[in-house]
Amino acid sequence: MYLYDELDRTLVAERVAEFRDQVARRLSGELSEDEFKPLRLMNGVYLQLHAYMLRIAIPYGTLSSDQLRMLAHVARRYDRGYGHFTTRQNIQFHWIKLAELPEAMADLAGAGLHGMQTSGNNVRNITTDQWAGVAPDEIEDPRVWAELIRQHLTLHPEFSFMPRKFKIAVGASRHDRAALRIHDLALRLLRNGAGETGFEVMVGGGLGRTPFLAKTIKPFLHKRDVLSYVEAVLRTYNQFGRRDNIWKARIKILVHDLGAEAFAKEVEAEWRAIKDGPLALDPAVFAEIAGRFRYPAYERLDDNPPALGEARRADRRFDGWMGNAVANHRIPGYAIVTLSLKPQGGTPGDASAEQMEAIADLADRYSYGEIRVGHEQNLVLPHVAQRDLAALWRALDAIGVATPNVGLISDIISCPGLDYCSLANARSIPVAQEIAARFRNLDLARDLGRLHINISGCINACGHHHVGHIGILGVEKNGEEFYQITLGGKADEDAKLGALIGPAVPFAQVADVVEDIAAAYLELRARPDELFVDTVKRTGIEPFKERVYATR
Amino acid sequence: MTSPLDQKLKIAGPVVVTANRLTDGAVIYRRADGGWTTVLDAAAVTTSAAVAQEHLAAANIDRLRAVGAYVAPVKVATDGRLRPGNLREFIRSTGPTTIDPRDPL
Q: Do B92 and A50 touch (CB under 8 A)?
């Protein structure tokens, strides 16, 4: 956990007081909607189809149990009893009343939570690997760097009105769990040939109407230069990014139009001018930030305690969950546990207030009071002793967050879609629910193996459909919902954009199409352990296309 | 330059003026008396673009009650009741079509 200091608390409290005044002036008519809208957006408040929506940042996806309890409180007191975890380590409340927002924000501030920079043309919530600090393949905890950058860029006046929003992710493992290549700016910790630790810098990723994967513009950046280089990238974008056309305003368009090499040259020129100034990393500042991260006092335990093996042999359901939702931890005797927020019939990423409170209690009991949020819209308990896994599983199962479908076909990433979002053209959640229902047989889902479905209800791609192994994009045609299907996308270290297989299909046929694709894969795969996405890579999309459109 | 409010409105059938309520964002419809209602069937309906334009202009002045007013299509059922004219308006009118997350899992 990161412990906020007095400066953080003061800043958030001041923002709440400011927003309370702005809401009062809007409700009295002193502020028009045109005047108020940019102010509410600066605090993560949107007006959606049915109500106001409040987006709360969960920096680098780390929550304390008290923070999760506060989210549960807000869900129950100010919303309809649930919240929606997003693909960018945020949580959204979809039924908030404007008049009650200042109170909700004040309550959240008490737990160090806020909605600043979760909207608007600024640097958004900085995301990382949800396994940060505990992943066995990690070089070092990327959250410390994310926090350093967060502090520097919070309410930074120069970067509060950029051409468009700006998303940063930081990773530190060989295996990319933070979807680095689809970010405007991504930093990956790595070691160079001399054994020094630094960053690979990638820019210009993003999905939406014009999807691009980020390109590496600096293969190795020394740690001391991280803030100056990030600032140089932001300045270059701020100067050259387009402000005349919202569809061409993201940095990905600038990097594409200039070319990554030319863009990198501009950044280097800017960087050389500032790199030895005040932004050069002060080791004392970094040490102070690192020192505010608290790590558990782990016990000395052995891996695979005998009782765990016995419990697995005694209960097939527990064994199935162990094989799906539990991952190796860097500390012997511990495990990383993923909590599926994709139950049969549920809304991907939703958690009720009761579930949040129960998870907070379980985190206190079994995970040193810490919870993580992943971009796949699941939660994680990052520090669970292996001896406690059976007891934890029973408790998680009782509250509906132990569906052993993590990474499988029913672990669907989905935006809220037309059921909630004012930008959407088509529904996403009912499509996800129907697909999950078709694949509720877990034996079939396990046979299909790792298979990521991503659904977006419009071209803005909040459901990251371009990088789904199966991507589904809702479009509107003559008042009807249709869905384009792409195959072969990936969001990991081998990121790839999916390929469109053909004409869009109507709402009622989407789940049928997914079943056809799954059936084709089972016939086409070279061997049982060839992953779906590898089969698509080997065969191309043609055999899938033939299967899908043969009878349509 | 012509203001969007002065631009000609094109409609193809019955329409109502709808918006979100300022205080809580709830979906509201403009009534014939200039007030607002959450019940679609109580909305003022017109097939005249000029009248719809007038209603919209009046709604846009009502800054303390309504946000983001616009003209939305409706269908008039055989019993005379108003129905939403498209899927988006149907969802706005009746709520999300998803399974209610408050139901027992």
A: yes
pLDDT of residue A1: 66
Nearest to B17 by CA among B82, B103, B98, B77: B82
CATH number of the structural domain A134-291: 3.30.413.10
In CATH, the number for domain A413-549 is: 3.30.413.10
CA-atom Rg of chain B in angstroms: 15
Distance CA A329, CA A327 (A): 6
A481 and chain B: CB distance < 8 Å anywhere? Answer: yes
What is the rounded CA–CA span in Å between residue A14 and residue A128? 27
Q: Which CATH class is domain A6-109?
A: alpha beta
Q: What pLDDT shows up at residue A4?
A: 80
**Rounded distance between C-alpha atoms, residue A316 and residue A340, angstroms:** 18
B88 interaction partners in chain A (CB closer than 8 Å): 49, 418
| Distance (Å) from the alpha carbon of A490 to chain B's nearest alpha carbon | 27
Predicted pLDDT at A143: 97
Contact, A53 vs A96, CB < 8 A?
Answer: yes
Share of chain B above pLDDT 90, in %: 80
**Is B101's CB within 8 Å of A82's CB?**
yes
CB atoms inside a 10 Å sphere around CB A94: 25
* pLDDT of A361 strictly over 90: yes
Query: Would an 8 Å CB–CB cutoff place B88 in contact with chain A?
Result: yes
Cross-chain Cβ contact B101/A481 below 8 Å: no
